[in-house]
Amino acid sequence: MGYRARLGGTRRFRPERPEGADITADRIEADGIGTGRIGQGRVGTHATGIGAPVAQYAPAGLVERVVVTLSGVRQPIVAILLAISFMTVISGKPVDGFLLALVATALAWDAGLRSAQERAAGLPVRADGSSAGAGSRDMVGEVQQRSAWPLRTARPPARIMALSIGAASICSLIFGSFTRYSWPATAGVVGVGASVVIVGWGGPTRRRAIPGKFPRSAAATWGTLLIAAGTWELIALLGQPNIETGSYAHPTISTLTDPLLASPLGRAVALLGWIGLGVFLVER
Amino acid sequence: MNSHDVTVTGFLIVLGALIGTEIAARSRRTSIPTFSQLFTRIMRTRTGRVGVLVAWAWVGLHFFAK
């Protein structure tokens, strides 16, 4: 049963596919960033753009838009961002929390809309919002990521690695030398963070096989640890005298890391680790 | 053992479990994915990718920025 039939709503679905056309091209676009088959010339910089829709589906009216957005909240990362946003707000940073909630809502909208488009196109959609078409390609091990960037197949040459590590170290030392929570430190962290997010938005920078769907128990192992860490942090946070004042008796991760981040060298080391994690993520 | 020690021990247990899980995953004796495989899988969609990167950026802002 198609999306139109199930909701019975008013929507415009225009597949724009000539009769008899190969549907593989649409399915390749189905998982957001997308995956491409090796040897079809679709890996690397491509003309179709990242996250091109599988079908032109446009929700009509506010209620339908809200429904589409809410359906995207099923994505775990969206739920995590909303939880972080809530914690940020109750920690006394309402503007930061609002901005994070805004990003989470935009991602929920994007994920929900994509699921709706895939339903409209007749592709089965999993609970995490990805299409079965994409998943089946993942499982055969014949796929790799597509990206707006030329995909490297291995680590960069040693010279480039040395230059990158040197640049990251210099950035860390400079930004670490600034007082914590000062405007110069803020500008530096915002600059690095925004740059990595923008690069990452375009897709991965390194070609690698996407693992197939994990067994439920395997995913539950990491999920349980994440929830345990979050719950323990929340318990410590609620044990503080008030939400904005650290407590020796119930230290949060922020309180425990304060001594390390009190010195310029400690901040530089932490910043270098943070940048390194960002590079690790951008390559995924 | 006071409440400070209990809280710190809790964090150390979680940290130890995370490291232990990664070691177990790399031993290939279990079906548990490694940290790298987990994030490659999560970040295959645009929502997952941008969401993870925004969460990463938030960590930096939380610890260093105004």
3D architecture notes:
The complex is a heterodimer of chains A (284) and B (66). By secondary structure, chain A is mainly alpha-helical. Chain A has helices spanning 3-7, 24-28, 62-72, 76-90, 94-120, 132-140, 158-177, 183-201, 216-238, 253-261, 264-282, and strands at residues 11-14, 35-37, 56-59, 143-145. Chain A has a two-stranded antiparallel ribbon. Chain A has a two-stranded antiparallel ribbon with strand order 2-4. In chain A, helix 7 (158-177) crosses helix 11 (264-282). By secondary structure, chain B is an all-alpha fold. The model of chain B has no long low-confidence stretch (mean pLDDT 91). Chain B is flat. Chains A and B meet through helix 4, helix 5, helix 8, helix 9 and helix 10 of A and helix 1, helix 2 and helix 3 of B.
Strand content of chain A: under 5%
Strand-residue proportion of chain B:
under 5%
Report the radius of gyration of chain A as a whole number of Å.
Answer: 22 Å
The helix-and-strand class of chain A reads mainly alpha
Distance between the termini of chain B: 35 Å
| Order of helical and strand elements of chain B | HHH
The Rg value of chain B, from CA coordinates, equals 16 Å
Ranges of chain B where pLDDT stays below 50 over 5 or more residues in a row are none
Report the total helices of chain A. 11
Q: Secondary-structure element order of chain A, as H and E?
A: HEHEEHHHHEHHHHH
pLDDT below 50 for ≥5 consecutive residues: which ranges of chain A? 1-53, 131-143
N-C termini distance of chain A: 35 Å
Shape call of chain A = globular
- Percent helix of chain A: 55-70%
Number of helices of chain B: 3
Average pLDDT rating of chain B: 91
Number of strands of chain B: 0
Tell me, rounded to a whole number, the average pLDDT of chain A.
Answer: 76
